[in-house]
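quick q for whoever's on today - can somebody do inverse folding on this one?? i tried earlier but teh output was garbage lol. tokens:
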């Protein structure tokens, strides 16, 4: 039995937002755009993806073994078409992967209440698994900078928010550093220069700590009310010049609130903006190199017994304000697994699952343009969506998962 966990998705497009403007488009054609035909991934790979500008791709996942233990597997490809056989890194679940410009790959996962890790040097073999921490409760997140320095963050078994770093070229992780004695809903963003932001939630607030991959973090600042406990989540993104955006669904109020906050390159966070008071499910956010941002989130409309969980988007041009949310999914259909990614040049990619038609839709907006016709893949499950200069990568389906790549920017 194979598990490929990752975030959630959306529905078929009717109204789309170009950054700074609202553009009405017809429903997307069924014809494929420039996404490659799906390739079946080996083994349990596909729940977590990473890609670099050279087009090297990494896919990880986990599976249940005949003895009921779980093991983490990872596969690599130089072109997104031809994949290595799966390599078993060790026992555990919920892997995350990150890849540096030179091809150095770092994988982290949880195993028996511990955080484990393995490293693959450019063109080399995966290292034996090492234990980063013996205290883990949730799946770790990982990021890597342009020099190959990596950082992981996670919620410990004692509910502390912990981090550890791995210098480029090394295999020995730093000592675990706690950022908070108690928290949940951890996310992490790293840029090429080594700047990093970690977001998490306390019982009373959503917070963000800014710092560097190897240099530690400043005192966290409060962004707004917290997401739901204990199953809420936060999302944070960071570009090369220091612009950042965070998004979450707060639990305050009868139905919750969809919130976004932005940070300028000087490190100052603006007050959180409310996008919806009828949120449903999760939220995602992306930012390009100029500071343009796009968020995708679930929202309920209609009344009993005809409540629809739909996908909406809102855009913020660099230095501007968030646009009025616009319906992205097909009217009347239910959306799930909403995701968005952006590259430095200004390409934005959104994807979502239409659970009514059992299809995955993906839309791409080239730099300075609005979203074009969508590509649909038959799918009932989502894996991951990621992007790097030149390449967007999407995985989906039940095990064995499939993967498709699109040239961008």
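ok took a stab at it. sequence:
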């Amino acid at each position: 039995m194979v598990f490929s966990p990752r975030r959630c998705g959306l529905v078929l497009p009717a109204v789309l937002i170009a950054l700074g403007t609202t553009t009405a488009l017809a429903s997307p054609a069924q014809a494929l755009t420039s996404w490659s035909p799906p390739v079946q991934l080996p083994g349990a790979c596909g729940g977590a993806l990473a890609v670099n500008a050279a087009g090297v791709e990494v896919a990880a996942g986990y599976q249940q073994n005949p003895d009921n233990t779980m093991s983490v597997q990872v596969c690599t490809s130089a072109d997104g078409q031809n994949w290595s056989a799966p390599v078993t890194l060790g026992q555990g679940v919920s892997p995350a992967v990150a890849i540096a410009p030179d091809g150095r790959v770092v994988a982290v996962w949880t195993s028996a209440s511990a955080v484990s890790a393995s490293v693959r040097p450019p063109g080399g073999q995966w290292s034996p698994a090492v234990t980063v921490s013996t205290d883990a409760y949730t799946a770790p997140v990982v990021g890597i900078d342009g020099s190959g320095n990596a950082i992981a963050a996670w919620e410990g078994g004692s509910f502390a928010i912990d981090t550890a770093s791995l210098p480029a070229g090394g295999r020995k992780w730093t000592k675990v550093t706690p950022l908070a004695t108690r928290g949940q809903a951890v996310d992490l963003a790293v840029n090429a220069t080594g700047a990093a932001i970690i977001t998490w939630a306390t019982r009373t607030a959503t917070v963000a700590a800014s710092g560097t991959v190897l240099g530690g973090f400043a005192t966290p600042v409060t962004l707004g009310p917290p997401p739901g406990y204990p199953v809420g989540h936060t999302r944070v993104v960071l570009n090369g010049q220091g612009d950042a955006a965070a998004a979450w669904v707060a639990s305050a109020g009868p139905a919750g609130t969809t919130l976004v906050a932005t940070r300028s390159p000087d490190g100052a966070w603006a007050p959180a903006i409310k996008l919806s008071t009828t949120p449903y499910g999760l939220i995602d956010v992306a930012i390009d190199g100029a500071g343009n941002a796009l968020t995708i989130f679930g929202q309920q409309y209609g009344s009993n017994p005809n409540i629809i969980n739909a996908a909406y988007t809102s855009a913020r041009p660099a230095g501007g304000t968030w646009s009025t949310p616009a319906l992205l999914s097909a009217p009347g259909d239910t959306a799930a697994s909403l995701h968005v990614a952006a590259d430095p040049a200004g390409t934005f990619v959104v994807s979502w699952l239409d659970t009514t038609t059992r299809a995955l839709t993906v839309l791409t907006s080239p730099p300075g343009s609005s979203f074009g016709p969508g590509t649909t893949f038959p799918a009932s499950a989502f894996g991951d969506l990621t992007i790097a200069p030149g390449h967007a990568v999407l995985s989906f389906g039940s095990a064995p998962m499939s993967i498709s790549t699109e040239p961008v920017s």
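fwiw The two ends are 38 Å apart (CA to CA). also The chain has a mean pLDDT of 90. so keep that in mind when u check it
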